[in-house]
């Protein structure tokens, strides 16, 4: 059991991804953000 305040530790590690950027594979990037990460494919 996790102590109070540690329950959502992983979720609080970084802010929630913007719905517009939700398509971006956050967990699949190892070298940082791609150059045009803010422009979803058309």
Commentary on this structure:
- Residues 1-42 are annotated as: Disordered.
- This protein is low in regular secondary structure and 42 residues long.
- Helix content is 0%, strand content 0%.
- The mean pLDDT is 55.
Keywords:
42 residues, little secondary structure, elongated
Compute the average pLDDT.
55
C-alpha-based Rg, rounded? 14 Å
| Sheet/helix structural class | little secondary structure
What form results from the Cα inertia axes?
A: elongated
Helix content: under 10%
Oligomer: single chain
Largest sheet, strands/sense/barrel: none
In short:
The chain contains no helices and no strands. It is largely without helices or strands.
Helices, strands, pairings?
Elements: no helix or strand
